[in-house]
Structure formats: C-alpha cells, structure tokens
Design goal:
Number of domains: 3
Radius of gyration: 30 Å
Shape: globular
Helix content: 40-55%
Structural class: alpha+beta
Distance between the termini: 89 Å
Largest sheet: 4 strands, antiparallel
Oligomer: single chain
Number of helices: 21
Strand content: 5-15%
C-alpha cells in the first residue's frame, strides 16, 4: 500500500498515551515492561510506538519543540552496567514525574526528563554500582553524604549544577511509593535539596554558578571581526550563487557564526530562541516619530510561546543577509520534505514521519547547518537547524578567529546583554547598538516593556537582577580597600571599621534600597534632596557633597579636569571670575587625585569655598 503525503504527518498518539497507567507500581513485570512511554500517530489513526518502559532506550523525539536540540539529546540510554533494580526504580520515578509532575506543579517537558536521567540518575546509579549497591533500599545516610561530597567536588562553585545532579534522590523520595525498593529515609534529613545543594545560601547575589559576562575588550574584538565578515559577505554569497563555493565552505559558515553572535548579543535571546528565528519574522514600526525594530521567535523555556525582541537596525540588516545565506539550504529541506512525502515504502515509516516533522519545522529557519550523516539521497547532505552544541562550537571558533582566547559561549550573551543595558544606564559604557535600540536616553525599562506586550518579560527581570548585581558589586568595592573621594566616599571609608555579621546579606539589602546614579565623574546617592542635577555640569560640586562618591574608576576623568582647569589658569585675559573659579576647581580636582592615590600630597592653600551639599 502506498504511503501518501497526509499519512506521513505525525502527531502525538494522545489516545494511546492517555490510556497508559500513571504509575508502574503494582503491575506485573510484563505489564510494566509494555507501558508505552512515547508514541506517534499518523493521520490515518495508526499508532507507532517509539519506546516502552522496559526498553533500554527511551525515545522522546516527538516531544521536543526546541529548534536547537540535536536528535542525539532526545534519547535516554539506560545503562546496562547497573543492576536492573536500580534502573527500574529510576525509570519508575522519572515516569511518574513525566506523567503526574511534582506535587503542586505541572508535569515537565521531555527535555527535563532527559536531562534528569542523563545528568542525575545515570551518574548516581553508576556511583552506587561501584560500591556494589544494587537497590535503593540499601542506600544509607552515609552513602548520601558521600555522594553529595563527591558531586560538590566535581562541580566546584556551581550550586545549580549540584542541584541538578542530585535531583534523582529527591525524585526517589517524593515518588517513593512508585518504587519497588524505596529509600529508607529522606536523603536530606531535616534539610532539603535546595539547602544541601547550596542554592539556599545565595542571598541576593553570588558568584557561585553565575554565567560569565563577556569582557568589553572581547566584545569589541568579536564585534569588529563580525563587521569585517559582513562587509565581505555579499561577495562570498555571489561566489556561492555562481557555483564557485560549496555550501560547506568555511567562508559561508563564518557568515552564519557572525550573524548568530550579533543577533544574540544585540537582542538578549537565548540560543534556542535565536535558532528559532525564521525568514521574514522581523518587522519595523514608527511610534511618535521613532522607528522600532522587532524580531519574533518562540520561547519554550517557560512556555510563553510567540515572543518578540527589540533589535537595532544593524541586526535587521544581518537578518536580511541571513535570509540570503539560508535560501539554498531551505530549498534542500523543501526537496527532502518532498522526497519523504512521496516515499511509498512501509520500511522505516516511523523514522520518516519524525524526520518529516522536523524538516518541516526547520524549513524556514535561518541558522541551518549541513551534515553528511542521514543525508538525503538526492542532495548528499542532511540539513538541520543548528544545535546548541553546534552553536557552542561556532562561538568558540568565532572568538578564536577574532584574536581572543575567551571561551565564548551562546548562554553568555543574554546576561552580557542585560549587563550592557545596566552599564549603559549607569554611565559606565556607551555601546552604539544600545543607543540605536533604546532610541533616546530617557526611555525607561517600564516604557520599553509597555511598548510591546509580546516581549519576553523574563528578559526585563534579568536586566533588573543585573542592576542589583551591579550595585552590589559597586558597594562591595567601596567597602573594600579601594580609595574613595567625595563627601559620601569619605563617610564610607569611616564605616569600613564596623564589623558585619553577614556582609553578603547587608550588601543585598543595601543594593535594593540605595539609588545610585552615574554623573560621568562620580556616583550620586541622593535619594530626594540634592543639588538638583547641577553636579552633572559642575563636577567639583560633588567633591564635598554628602551624596557624592568618587572611586578609582573615575581617576582619569579627574586627571582631565585637573589639566583642563590648570590650562585655564594660563590664560591671561580670562577675567578674575574665571580665574577664581579655575583656582578653586584645580584644588578640588587635586584633592580628589590625592584621595584616590594619584597624587601624594594636597595643596590646600587656595581652597575658595566648598561645593554645595
């Protein structure tokens, strides 16, 4: 019987899956073995089972919607070198979690199950097997303590990874009634996994497990290198279209790598969202005379679905370039789709259904890659959306080519984007693409979020978190041994002698309460009353102001102020008023440099009045 195009459209086998028990406990070995874990149904209504409870591999391919997950990450390869009792109980609790969810929460997505099995269940089973422990009811508190120590020693300074690695013990306790050999006692005693992993200690902010921020000099090198690639891209694409370059030519791959970095760093997208961008998914609009640019994608992490990200005009041009780059690869996918739909053979039907579904999902994607594995019969290549692993390789390759040894990774871009916004707002950096993106300096994050309800709210949350981190870092540096000047700066230096019971808690609490604004030559802590902004234009007002803090990051600014005012003193016809003010400002600038250790001794012989407080 021929397999027509409609019959090849796969769907989740809802009826079959809904008929499966929600627990494996109490079933005969045969019934438990045959529980259907994953299946698809074609449009003719025929079910195709992918994996059963007793299989050595669980196949979750139909349940992944993320564009950047490679097929190899969609399986759980249950270990054959561990006892069947350990494996079956791990299967039982993860199956229970998948079907019912934790108490008070909805069931996890397939990625959660796969990650819990690979990162937590399988490593722990192998560790127990090395101790000749074959069942979970043989696990004693000393074993748990040792395993926690072993896990933390492997994952130094990363509480989040420790938590993820120990989760299977939590599942084994929460779903203990689903296991054949349940744990005898709660693995955490009177505590919890949250506390044992170290996550509970992270009050406000911590460096533990923090995604690194890409240093400014690395950003500059990579961005400049990307611009060089984009400048040469039209010529390279012309050569490809003329048949002079193959689709796997390194020059073409560099265009894709550069575009992925620029999209990620200028939008704040996660990697899965960047890879999910499709041809024609961006738009521009004019509001109150200002042009905004938006790009749409799908957010899977928290289930928001379709979302839009604000991007600068530069990124719009990059996406247009990627549309041209992706066109022949999209045509190859379309050809593969046609081949799969017209294949009449019943052999390998299930795999063809799954491949067809993925090929159709990727057909309009921009960030595509080619591989000779699983190649199409007519093209010799297999085309897929770039995976997360492929993106990591791309970023490292890009950083190396740009002349930096920084281990650039996709997940660093979102936090770096948030940090760039914060530093731009705080006057510490002024990136051109942020000026384009936010249009004018007075636009607040609230106004920006309100401008488009389809935006990803969690990105704004991360910006606010980064603002808190920035302020904590700043205040912590002030409470250290850093040289300070300004009225408030001198008071802070006096407070360093006070012993604090919890420095971390104090910093987190203080950062949330204190308003800190950059003036360009220092920091202003004024809450309600102050100079009314006069210190922005008359820098020396901040030196004696009770709300002013001048730290070492502004030393060069004050050197410049000192040089400028000193130069004014050499002008003979400036007039007595100008000369009097210049003499005053020279002394204040000199005082700041002394406070910051730039000059050793102050000359206070001619201080003509203090700045207003």
């Amino acid at each position: 019987m021929a397999v027509n195009a409609i019959a090849l459209q796969p769907a989740k086998a809802y009826d079959l899956l809904a008929a499966q028990p929600v627990s494996s406990k109490g079933l005969s070995e045969s019934a438990k073995f045959n529980i259907v874990v994953s299946a698809v149904a074609d449009m003719d209504g025929s079910n195709h089972v992918l994996s059963r409870f007793g299989d050595s591999i669980w196949d979750f391919r139909p349940y992944f919607e993320q564009s950047n997950v490679a097929d190899g990450q969609k399986y759980i390869p249950w270990p054959g070198d561990c006892s069947q009792e350990l494996v079956d109980d791990c299967k039982a609790v993860l199956y229970a979690w998948f079907k019912r969810g934790l108490p008070g929460s909805k069931p996890p997505v397939a990625m959660g199950i796969c990650q819990a099995a690979i990162a937590s269940a399988i490593p722990m089973m192998r560790w127990l097997t090395a101790l000749n422990i074959k069942r979970f009811d043989q696990v004693k508190p000393i074993h748990v303590v040792n395993y926690v120590h072993y896990t933390k020693s492997r994952l130094t300074r990363n509480a989040g990874s420790v938590y993820d690695s120990l989760r299977i013990l939590d599942f084994l306790w929460v779903f203990r009634n689903d296991t054949s050999f349940p744990l005898a006692a709660c693995p955490w005693g009177d505590s919890s996994l949250w506390r044992v992993s170290g996550l509970a200690k992270q009050v406000g902010r911590t460096e533990t497990g923090k995604t690194p921020i890409i240093p400014p000099d690395v950003q500059a090198k990579v961005f400049n290198y990307c611009e060089e690639i984009f400048a040469a891209a039209p010529r390279i694409l012309n050569e490809r279209d003329a048949g002079s370059l193959g689709l796997r030519n390194p020059a073409l791959i560099r265009i894709r790598d550069a575009a992925l970095y620029v999209l990620s760093i200028t939008s704040g997208m996660r990697n899965e969202e960047a890879i999910g961008v499709e041809a024609g998914s961006w738009r521009s609009e004019v509001r109150d005379g200002i042009e905004f640019h938006w790009v749409a994608t799908t957010e899977h992490k928290t289930g928001k679905g379709r979302v839009e990200f604000l991007i600068p005009e530069l990124t719009v041009k990059v996406l247009a370039l990627m549309s041209r780059y992706a066109k022949p690869l999209q045509e190859m996918l379309a050809l593969e789709v046609a081949e799969l739909e017209c294949n009449p053979t019943p052999q390998g039907l299930t795999n063809r259904m799954l491949r067809l579904a993925k090929a159709k999902r990727d057909a309009r994607k921009l960030f595509l890659c080619t591989s000779r594995s699983g190649q199409s019969e007519s093209t010799g290549y297999h085309v897929d959306a770039l995976s997360n692993g492929g993106s990591k390789v791309s970023f490292r390759r890009l950083a190396k080519a740009a002349g930096t040894d920084w281990q650039l990774a996709p997940h660093q871009c979102r936090r770096t984007y948030a940090r760039n916004i914060v530093e731009s707002r705080m006057g510490c950096a002024s990136l051109v693409f942020l000026k384009w993106q936010f249009k004018h300096s007075s636009m607040s994050m609230t106004q920006l979020y309100a401008s488009n309800p389809m935006q990803d709210a969690s990105l704004f949350d991360e910006v606010l978190d980064e603002m808190t981190d920035f302020k904590v870092d700043l205040i912590e540096s002030w409470l250290g041994d850093q040289a300070l000047s300004g009225g408030a700066g001198r008071q802070i230096k006096k407070s360093r002698a006070i012993t604090l019971k919890s420095r971390t808690a104090l910093l987190a609490e203080t950062a949330a309460q204190v308003h800190i604004r950059a003036t360009g030559h220092g920091w202003c802590l004024a809450q309600e009353k102050g100079c009314g902004g006069a210190g922005l234009y008359e820098a020396t007002r901040c030196v004696g102001c009770k709300n002013g803090v001048i730290d070492e990051s502004f030393a060069e600014i004050w050197k410049g102020i000192y040089a400028q005012q000193t130069e004014l003193l050499t002008i003979d016809d400036a007039g007595p008023a100008v000369r009097q003010r210049a003499e005053r400002d020279v002394q204040w600038a000199r005082q700041v440099m002394v406070d910051l250790g730039v000059l050793l001794t102050p000359d206070t012989s001619n201080l003509n009045g203090a700045p207003n407080e």
